[in-house]
Design goal:
- With 268 residues, the protein is mainly α.
- The chain is 35% helix and 7% strand.
- It contains 9 helices and 5 strands.
- The longest helix has 24 residues.
Length: 268
């Protein structure tokens, strides 16, 4: 779930398979031919495409600038979903504008629809990944959802589960007592916070009780996560000096979370 545009037709492309796959010629001509923007064969990294089940096209190609994608795919840690888009019915060039319910050429709209993947609004949750987590949870898996920097509707499941996504900063995690303005008084403040959010009494309100419980739960979860994630070293060296839109920092945080998945106590 990265921000910005992506020319997906120059990421995963057909391979000529030694001349047996006509899809490559179709692709290359559709992208403008020799003077166009299609990838030539020397700009393509071959990968196994036999699972697509296309006769004569057992090999597909990746943009040769994306060597990491090839490694992830061949290690069995990633997959490609091709020709995925938002349509609630088949349309043609002469009727798509009147027959579709959404703006097919709006980046903002397509991003929203890709988060939901629910053209007919039939899902029990707003997010496609959240609904996947719901199914896994019903089948006994321990699941959780974490967003970096901002909440994403994609990971929201059914409200019936009561499972809310945790939001963490790409810059790192901090205990409440790590703040500079608490220097020298951190433990005194802890007692006051514990007293403020302690058990309810006769004059406590339901909303105040709910807020306090959420605060305490978040407080405890953050402290535990900080203890686990501090000192974690990633195998990949994420260069954050030219961190466009914070992507490198976000991916580094995701890698650290993956490394402590056992400590976090979630399978997925």
């Amino acid at each position: 779930n990265l921000f910005g545009g992506l020319d997906s037709f120059n990421v995963l492309v057909p391979h000529d398979n030694g001349g047996s796959c006509s899809l490559y010629n179709d692709y290359f001509e559709a992208r403008g031919g020799v003077k166009g923007i299609g990838l030539t064969m020397d700009e393509i990294l071959p990968i196994d495409g036999s699972t697509a089940g296309i006769s004569g096209c057992n090999t597909f190609g990746l943009n040769n600038m994306l060597t990491a994608f090839k490694d992830i795919y061949e290690e069995g840690k990633g997959l490609f979903l091709a020709n995925l888009g938002h349509l609630h019915k088949p349309v043609k060039k002469d009727n798509w504008m009147t027959e579709t319910r959404t703006d097919l050429f709006s980046h903002h709209t397509m991003k929203k629809e890709s988060h939901e993947v629910d053209a007919f609004k039939e899902g029990e949750g707003p997010g496609v990944m959240g609904r996947m987590l719901d199914v896994l949870e019903r089948n006994g898996e321990a699941v959780s959802a974490i967003a970096v920097n901002t909440r994403a509707a994609m990971i929201d499941g059914s409200p019936k589960t009561g499972r809310l996504a945790d939001i963490i900063s790409a810059d790192g995690l901090h205990k409440i007592y790590d703040k500079n303005w608490l220097s020298g008084q951190s433990q005194e403040l802890r007692g006051l916070l514990e007293s403020l959010h302690s058990e309810t009494d006769d004059i406590s309100g339901i909303f105040g009780n709910k807020w306090s419980q959420s605060f305490v739960d978040t407080w405890n979860k953050t402290d535990g996560l900080v203890e686990s994630i501090r000192g974690v070293k990633t195998i990949t060296d994420f260069d954050t000096r030219l961190d466009t839109a914070g992507i490198s920092s976000s991916l580094k945080q995701v890698a650290r979370l993956i490394q402590i998945r056992n400590e976090r106590g979630v399978g997925i």
